[in-house]
């Protein structure tokens, strides 16, 4: 469950900011191996084009746009500085793997289905690609699910590794890795003979939480186990000498929301070593360059680009209370590890490309410098029950004189964080601020940013310590800003949606609640969602083996204490949190006579992201808060 710094119940923290009219957008940033150029997918509204820029001064060197009706994605440089990318034409059912060299662009293969993550081999002659032939849905559990009809559970989308020759276009696509095994991520070994990969047997959406670290042979496709870590794993990377694999390991609730410690393990196989043990920060991106390990970490309110020497704390090079993003992780590093580039934004400043040597990163694009700030943001820290906790307070520009109402928005995950993203009018935060509310974004126990022990501290304690951290955070905010304690509201989606339903049974401090894709009954949730495996690392046992642990955090068992009026929304085809969870809570509140409204959005997946539907959610949420919070007596 996620969303943000990154996204299972992910919906908020790291999600891409909504496109605002007139704002220049940069997506999918990659950096050339020599650090001299960046590639991004850019637009100022309308069609996107691939844009190559000088990494020193941000000047546009060239644009690439071979298909006027296509959307582009997955930019990746070859070792010689050529660029590969994917082009998808909404009119045809397929994805083109394109190769740009100099000013010429050609199509190497067309995948009948969906594809992601092209990577050119170290010798430049082959391109590996993850393909899902005949895909029934988009990859990832936050996407709308397929209809539950026919014989259930017999057919899964399978993402497999395929390899193409740069010199000879292919008319067919034949996967290399074996059928029945879903490949999530991979990296070439430096000798070009194979890959390290994270894989799982069976349904890809459901089994990422138990994925293993494996080697795949580039000739035969044979799979060999390297390690079966107890944690979730992301960003597997092979050392330049080909002997060691590093990865980010940690308690992660969502595939797209990355955070943990760095582990290393021999490529030959063995027991992984935790090389950032005890750090008070969360590693969110990992690369292994010729110059050593490079990381992006979240430390409290600051994002840091750093150098990691095993056994020492991450040495931060560049740190800023902002959010970085790139095509694969939060930043892209040059092959020698000296330079870095990323798209950087915070609550008050719209996205810009930052690039340069790790210790001297600078802003190099200025397309959005005139975009106005819609809030004044403040990082707030507090202590609770021995933990250091951090959150963000966003103040409206038109705050009324005297005390103002405040909405606390709980991020998804729970393994995630609310991190700075430029506030546009087309976002929930933007709409709340415009309506005159303060917005509080707490990163309570279970979040990223304070080290692994903090992230793991809400295991078997959902809605316990994390809710107490949030309530203590509201006290802390009330000491530094003119907040009216009698006019507090609560909102969130995914894990945040669970927290809002649960909080209704624990406190009457909030006057109105907006619950998106929430979980009201963990017993009925188990077995009816598409990602049951995510709960095992958090609860320790399945619901069948420890029913009480799941009952103990289910709002439906505490209905008698719930009094707060609630607006509930959910996507019809949400497989992370099926709409039945919202229907159960709506029915319960109705039965008790608590004001409640439920809207189920047709065909929507997790947390309802299509622009027109999201606009409807915002309008109803503001109207709900205005009725029950702003005008509360
Ligand atoms: C980028 O610009 C700098 C000067 O601003 C120049 O020295 C360098 O050669 C340029 N690099 C490329 C790849 O255009
Ligand atoms: C790394 O090691 C430390 C110290 O043993 C431990 O507290 C932490 O949980 C470990 N990290 C992970 C992701 O297991």
UniProtKB/TrEMBL annotation:
Q: Which GO terms describe its molecular function?
A: serine-type endopeptidase activity
Q: NAD among the record's keywords? A: no
* InterPro entries in UniProt: 6-blade_b-propeller_TolB-like (IPR011042), AB_hydrolase_fold (IPR029058), Peptidase_S9_cat (IPR001375)
All copies of the Peptidase S9 prolyl oligopeptidase catalytic domain together span 431-631
Signal listed as a keyword: yes
| Gene Ontology biological process terms, A to Z | proteolysis
**Signal peptide (residue range):** 1-20
Parts forming coiled coils: none
Keywords, in A-Z order: Hydrolase, Signal
Source species, domain of life: Eukaryota
| PANTHER family per UniProt | DIPEPTIDYL PEPTIDASE FAMILY MEMBER 6, SERINE PEPTIDASE S9 FAMILY MEMBER
Protein's name in the database: Peptidase S9 prolyl oligopeptidase catalytic domain-containing protein
Q: Which organism is the protein's source?
A: Diploscapter pachys
């Amino acid at each position: 469950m996620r969303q943000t710094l990154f996204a299972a119940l992910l919906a908020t923290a790291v999600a891409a900011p909504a496109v605002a009219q007139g704002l220049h957008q940069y997506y999918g940033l990659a950096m050339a191996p020599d650090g001299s150029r960046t590639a991004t997918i850019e637009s100022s509204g309308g069609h996107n084009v691939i844009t190559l820029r000088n990494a020193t001064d941000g000047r546009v060197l060239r644009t690439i746009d071979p298909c006027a009706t296509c959307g582009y994605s997955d930019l990746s440089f070859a070792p010689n500085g050529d660029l590969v990318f994917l082009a998808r034409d909404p009119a045809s059912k397929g994805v083109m793997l394109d190769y740009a060299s100099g000013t010429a662009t050609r199509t190497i293969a067309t995948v009948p289905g969906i594809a992601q993550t092209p990577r050119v081999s170290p010798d430049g002659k082959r391109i590996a690609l993850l393909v899902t032939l005949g895909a029934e849905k988009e990859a990832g559990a936050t996407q709308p699910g397929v209809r539950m009809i026919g014989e259930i559970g017999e057919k899964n989308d399978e993402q497999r590794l395929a390899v193409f020759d740069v010199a000879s276009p292919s008319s067919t696509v034949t996967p290399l890795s074996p059928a029945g095994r879903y490949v999530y991520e991979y990296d070439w070994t430096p000798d070009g003979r194979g890959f390290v990969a994270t894989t799982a047997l069976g349904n890809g959406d459901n089994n990422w939480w138990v994925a293993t670290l494996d080697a795949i042979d580039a000739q035969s496709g044979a799979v060999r186990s390297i390690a079966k870590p107890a944690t979730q794993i992301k960003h597997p990377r092979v050392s330049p000498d080909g002997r060691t694999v590093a990865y980010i390991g940690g308690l992660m609730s969502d595939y797209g929301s990355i955070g943990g410690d760095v582990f290393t393990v021999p490529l030959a196989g063995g027991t992984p070593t935790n090389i950032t043990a005890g750090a008070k920060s969360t590693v969110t991106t990992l690369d292994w360059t010729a110059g050593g390990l490079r990381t992006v970490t979240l430390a409290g309110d600051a994002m840091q680009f750093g150098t990691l020497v095993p056994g020492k704390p991450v040495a931060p090079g560049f740190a800023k209370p902002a959010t970085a993003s790139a095509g694969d992780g939060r930043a892209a590093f040059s092959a020698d590890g000296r330079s870095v580039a990323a798209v950087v934004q915070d609550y008050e400043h719209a996205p810009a490309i930052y690039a340069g040597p790790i210790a001297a990163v600078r802003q190099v694009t200025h397309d959005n410098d005139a975009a106005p700030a819609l809030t004044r943001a403040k990082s707030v820290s507090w202590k609770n029950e021995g933990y250091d906790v951090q959150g963000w307070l966003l103040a409206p520009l038109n705050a009324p004189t005297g005390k103002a109402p405040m909405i606390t928005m709980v991020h998804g995950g729970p393994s995630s964080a609310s991190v700075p993203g430029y506030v546009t009018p087309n976002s929930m935060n933007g709409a709340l601020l415009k309506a005159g509310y303060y917005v509080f974004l707490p990163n309570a126990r279970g979040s990223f940013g304070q080290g692994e022990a903090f992230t793991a501290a809400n295991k078997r304690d959902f809605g316990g310590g994390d809710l107490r951290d949030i309530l203590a955070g509201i006290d802390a905010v009330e000491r530094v800003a003119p907040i009216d304690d009698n006019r507090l509201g609560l909102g969130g989606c995914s894990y945040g949606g669970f927290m809002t339903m649960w909080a209704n049974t624990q406190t009457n401090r909030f006057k109105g609640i907006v619950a998106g894709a929430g979980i009201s009954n963990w017993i009925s949730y188990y077995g009816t969602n598409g990602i049951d495996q995510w709960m095992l690392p958090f609860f320790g046992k399945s619901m069948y083996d420890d029913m009480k642990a799941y009952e103990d955090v289910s709002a439906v068992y505490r209905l008698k204490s719930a009094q707060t009026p609630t607006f509930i929304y959910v996507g019809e085809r949400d497989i992370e949190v099926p709409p039945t969870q919202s229907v159960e809570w709506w029915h319960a509140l109705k039965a008790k006579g608590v004001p409640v409204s439920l809207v189920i959005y047709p065909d929507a997946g997790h947390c309802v992201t299509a622009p027109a539907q999201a606009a409807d959610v915002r309008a109803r949420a503001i109207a709900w808060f205005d009725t029950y919070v702003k005008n509360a007596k």
